[in-house]
Amino acid sequence: MKKAKKTVQPGAPALEKGLDLLEALAAESGGLNQKQLAERVGRSVGEIFRMLVALEQRGYVSRDPATGEYTLTLKLFRIASQFPPTERLLQAALPVMEQLASRVKLSCHLTVLHGEQFMVIARIEPEWLMGWSVKVGAVFPLTQQYASAKVLAAYQLEGRRNELADVIAAHDRVSLKKALAALDRVSAEGGNFSNDDGYTRILAYSCPIIEASGRAVAALTVPLVREDRIATAEAAGIANELRNAARNVSETIGGTVRG
């Protein structure tokens, strides 16, 4: 009896080349020139030139005329925001965020992991004269300086959690053991509710939005920045409102908030 031949699936070299370039740019906080990009993807400058031109024409990348460096645009973010899971997350979160901002009289924003960084995908402003907020689409590094970063990293499944802790350790120039200990504190508290770690830049409370697998798909964050001082008793109330809001969104998308 003859052995059945193994079917070889046809490849798509051009598509793979384009995806390699997008992934290489997504992994960088800054831009890359053609030579650097070629080295990252293991190809020659000539091989990637036409692909970069096509990606620029389609609006996926932009080129700085002064430095010749390429960076990703927000087009991929806009496409991702139309993807059903993201759309579902936003549909569940936005009404709750509006209520939260109204109750605590502070802005709030929703962030998700973006490679080895995190991105703001939604924000709500309160009816207040002054405050602090971030731009939708803004991307930040994973570091203990940001409450959202700690929450997103702390509430991942073990392998991914360790990877992100390693990124934080490298950025903050601390040991992996110390970075993991910081994430353990966040997990134990059910979110980020302390800002006395010596790293945090913006005082903020943050809670995870948990999906059915038990990992955080997002972090809901309230920066504690306003024109007047926030009293200790009021801060405790804000923390409670945030916990309830995060639990509400998590339950809506089929997950639960871990303590």
Structure characterization notes:
The protein has 259 residues and is of the alpha+beta class. Helices cover 47% and strands 15% of the residues. It has helices at 13-26, 34-41, 45-57, 75-81, 84-104, 147-154, 158-172, 176-189, 232-252; strands at 61-63, 70-72, 108-114, 117-124, 139-141, 204-210, 216-223. A hairpin with a 6-residue loop joins strand 1 and strand 2 (70-72). Helix 2 (34-41) packs across helix 3 (45-57), helix 5 (84-104) runs antiparallel to helix 9 (232-252) and helix 6 (147-154) packs across helix 8 (176-189). The longest helix is centred in the middle third of the chain and has 21 residues, at 84-104. The chain is globular. The termini are far apart. The mean pLDDT is 87.
Give the secondary structure arrangement, pairings included.
Blueprint lengths: L12 H14 L7 H8 L3 H13 L3 E3 L6 E3 L2 H7 L2 H21 L3 E7 L2 E8 L14 E3 L5 H8 L3 H15 L3 H14 L14 E7 L5 E8 L8 H21 L7
Antiparallel strand pairs: 1-2, 3-4, 3-7, 4-5, 6-7
Helix pairs in contact: 1-2, 1-3, 2-3, 5-9, 6-8, 7-8
Shape: globular
Q: Spans with pLDDT under 50 lasting ≥5 residues?
A: none
Content of β-strand:
15-25%
Mean pLDDT: 87
Annotation, overall tally of beta strands: 7
The helix/strand order is: HHHEEHHEEEHHHEEH
- Helix count, DSSP H or I runs of 4 or more residues: 9
Percent of residues in helices: 40-55%
What does this entry show, briefly?
By secondary structure, this protein is of the alpha+beta class. The protein is built from nine helices and seven strands, in the order H-H-H-E-E-H-H-E-E-E-H-H-H-E-E-H.
